[in-house]
Amino acid sequence: MLELEPVIRLSVFAVVLVAMALLERGFPRRPQRLSWRRWPSNLGLVALSSGLLRLLAPAGAVGVALWAESRGLGLFPALGLPFWVAAPLAVVLLDLLIYAQHRVFHAVPLLWRLHRVHHADPELDASSGLRFHPVEILLSLGIKAAAVVALGAPPEAVLAFEVLLNATSMFNHANVAIPGWLDRPLRWVLVTPDMHRIHHSEIREETDSDFGFCLSWWDRLFGTYRAEPRLGQLGMVIGVEGWREDAEQRLDRLLAQPFRRGG
C-alpha cells in the first residue's frame, strides 16, 4: 500500500474535491459571488505547497515514519504495542496534535500572519480547505514529523491520517447544507461544515473556537466548542477585515500577505 501513496492521496483528493464541488452546487448553504475567482488561487496555493514538499521533503511524514520504524524509534515500539492498537491510537493522537497546533497558530502573532492566509478567504467552500500558505505547510510537516518519530507511529497509520486530514478539511469547509437531524449527531464525532464555518467568522471569539479539523472531540474536551455563531449561519460575516477585497484573492497577494501590514 505504501508504494502507492501518491496514487492513493491524489485519488482521494480528486474524488472528495469533485464530490464536494457537486454537492455545493446542488445544496449550497450560503450564497456566494466570488467562487470562480477564488478557486484558481486556492488551488494554486495547494499546488505550490505540494511541489515545495516534494522538492524539500519528498518522503513526507510517511517517509519519516518508515525511517523511524526501521530503527525501532518511538513510544509505541518501546511499549511493544501491537499494530491494531498502535495504528488507530496514532491517528487519534495525530489529530489531537493538529488541534493543538491550530490553537498555537492562532495565539502566536507571527504564526497567525501565516495562518491568516487561510482565514482571509471571504467565502468558504471546499477550496478553502486547501488554502494554506506554503510556509505554514512546511512548518506543519516538521511538527508532524517530530510527533511521528516520538510516537513511533506505523507508516500505514500516518498515510491514513494524512489522507483523512486532507479529505475532512475539504468536507468541513464545504458550502454544503446538511440537515440538522444529520448534522447534530454527526458533529459528536466529526467536524461538520456548520461547526467549522463558525471558526471562520470575523468575530474574534468565534474565530478562536471550533479548532478541530477531523474529530470534534477536542473542542468539547478543551472548552473551545461553539454550537452556533452569534449572527447565525446565514448572517455571520466570513473572513478577516482588510483582506476580503477581490484583488487580495490573487495568488501573488496570498503568498505575500504574511509579510504585509494589516489584519
TrEMBL record:
Keywords: Membrane, Transmembrane, Transmembrane helix. Residues 89-224 form the Fatty acid hydroxylase domain. GO terms for biological process: lipid biosynthetic process. One of its GO terms (cellular component) is membrane. This is Sterol desaturase/sphingolipid hydroxylase (Fatty acid hydroxylase superfamily). Its main location: membrane. It comes from Neoroseomonas alkaliterrae. The keyword Chaperone does not apply. It is found in: Membrane. The chain crosses the membrane at residues 6-23, 43-68, 74-98. Signal peptide: none annotated. It holds the Pfam family FA_hydroxylase. One of its GO terms (molecular function) is iron ion binding. InterPro entries: Fatty_acid_hydroxylase, Sterol_Desaturase_Related.
